[in-house]
Amino acid sequence: MSSVLAVFCRGAIKVKVYAYDVSRGKEGCCLPGYPKHIHKEFPSVTKESSLPSHLDAVYYSYTDRSMYFFKGIYYWHNVAFNPLDRRRTNKVKGPWLISSKWYDICDVEV
Questions:
Q1: Containing structural domain, residue 26
Q2: Cα–Cα distance between 75 and 1 in angstroms, integer?
Q3: How far apart are CA 15 and CA 32, in angstroms?
Q4: Overall domain count for the chain
Q5: Does residue 88 contact residue 99 with C-beta atoms inside 8 Å?
Q6: Over the range 49-65, which residues count as b (16 or more CB within 10 Å of their CB) and which as e?
Q7: Strand runs (DSSP E) across 5-103, as ranges?
Q8: What is the pLDDT of residue 25?
Q9: What are phi and psi for residue 101, nearest 5 degrees?
Q10: Looking at residue 46, what is its pLDDT?
Q11: What does DSSP assign to residue 28?
Q12: In the chain, which residues have pLDDT < 50?
């Protein structure tokens, strides 16, 4: 499998995750076993740390080499994610207040 992979989430009620092999161009979607329900692809460490429905954003930090999920004023961290892991191991933990990790983000009314 290629090390170049793009993952997309889509859906209003049942969020699905689509994995795409970028190196294969138009033929790259979807990888075997996809689409998957978001909770199957990103299982939680505990029941309390399960991802919410209708995420606002997902962010990959090149600095931390980590993936983060956002909803409202909270974030979840994919603690098992490693970009070099060909098996794409995922385990989500959270929620925490966004301001507890990113101090320099201004508060804005949404």
A1: 16-100
A2: 30
A3: 18
A4: 1
A5: no
A6: bbbbeebeebeeeeeee
A7: 5-10, 16-21, 36-37, 57-61, 66-71, 74-78, 92-97
A8: 73
A9: -110, -45
A10: 92
A11: G
A12: 1-4
